[in-house]
Amino acid sequence: MYIAEILALSAAVCIAMSGMLVSELRGRLPLLDLARLQMFAAFLMTGAVSLVIGGWRTVELWQFGYLAASSLFGIIIASTTYFATIYTAGPRATALLFSLTSPFAVLLGYVFLGETLSGQQGIGIACVLLGILLAIGARSPSKAKTVERTPWLGIALGVVTAFGQALGSLAARPAMASGVEPFTAMAVRSGLAALFFVLLVLVPHPVLKPASKITNRSLGFAAGSAFFGVGLGMSLLMAALAHGNVGIVSTLSSMTPVVILPMIWARTGIVPPAPAWMGAALAVIGTGLISL
């Protein structure tokens, strides 16, 4: 039975679905309002699970410090730029740029933790970069004349997202290695982020002012994206890691750039160009070489 593999692929599908739902909020829900709603929903979901299984008892003060740093880099910064990337560049480019997390994680581990960088991992990093360049540079079919190339701002935001996520993972490693329960770790990280975004409302600046009215439709999309991304997606990923090989699970769960393409096709009626498929496949292959 390929339980772990199925769970990992399901996680990739859920994360892709979350990105698609976020893209529906572009122009409907301000970025910071989305981040606030997402983090609050994520905290409620993961916090409830942690309470049920008693995970809060696994966190000590020193571990909390590492998780707080992880929250800063991996959620407060990276999640905000992740949403901004979707708003700016769309879900396909965002999923692809997010695959840079693996190369960044390897390089950060090499620089700060003294981990070795093998030739296979070097080839994997090259594949990820080549895949991104190939897919980002792809033009849409002629019938999609209104669709332009990925803007540089979107690319920059995507790179910041991947780097922030890698930094967040690096910061969380000591706490996770010491036995902190995963749902509890996510609850701490998302809870601190939710508190940060709530406190931002108190800053007297028009940019930080929350929307005067949020429609039920927007609330539904925001809650749905949190459910598929943080709730179901991360739960499936953790279940996969508990049952299977870490490298294989990491590779299969990174299939998001590929599985999101049929979703975009179904949503827009426009077939993604061939370089987009090839670039996404290369990024997944590169992640596999890094992880296995």
TrEMBL record:
<dbReference type="InterPro" id="IPR000620">
    <property type="entry name" value="EamA_dom"/>
</dbReference>
<feature type="transmembrane region" description="Helical">
    <location>
        <begin position="248"/>
        <end position="266"/>
    </location>
</feature>
<feature type="transmembrane region" description="Helical">
    <location>
        <begin position="37"/>
        <end position="56"/>
    </location>
</feature>
<feature type="transmembrane region" description="Helical">
    <location>
        <begin position="6"/>
        <end position="25"/>
    </location>
</feature>
<dbReference type="InterPro" id="IPR037185">
    <property type="entry name" value="EmrE-like"/>
</dbReference>
<feature type="domain" description="EamA">
    <location>
        <begin position="4"/>
        <end position="135"/>
    </location>
</feature>
<feature type="transmembrane region" description="Helical">
    <location>
        <begin position="219"/>
        <end position="242"/>
    </location>
</feature>
<comment type="similarity">
    <text>Belongs to the EamA transporter family.</text>
</comment>
<feature type="transmembrane region" description="Helical">
    <location>
        <begin position="95"/>
        <end position="113"/>
    </location>
</feature>
<feature type="transmembrane region" description="Helical">
    <location>
        <begin position="273"/>
        <end position="291"/>
    </location>
</feature>
<feature type="domain" description="EamA">
    <location>
        <begin position="153"/>
        <end position="291"/>
    </location>
</feature>
<feature type="transmembrane region" description="Helical">
    <location>
        <begin position="62"/>
        <end position="83"/>
    </location>
</feature>
<keyword id="KW-1133">Transmembrane helix</keyword>
<feature type="transmembrane region" description="Helical">
    <location>
        <begin position="119"/>
        <end position="138"/>
    </location>
</feature>
<feature type="transmembrane region" description="Helical">
    <location>
        <begin position="183"/>
        <end position="207"/>
    </location>
</feature>
<dbReference type="InterPro" id="IPR050638">
    <property type="entry name" value="AA-Vitamin_Transporters"/>
</dbReference>
<dbReference type="GO" id="GO:0016020">
    <property type="term" value="C:membrane"/>
</dbReference>
<keyword id="KW-0812">Transmembrane</keyword>
<dbReference type="Pfam" id="PF00892">
    <property type="entry name" value="EamA"/>
</dbReference>
<feature type="transmembrane region" description="Helical">
    <location>
        <begin position="150"/>
        <end position="171"/>
    </location>
</feature>
<keyword id="KW-0472">Membrane</keyword>
<protein>
    <submittedName>
        <fullName>EamA family transporter</fullName>
    </submittedName>
</protein>
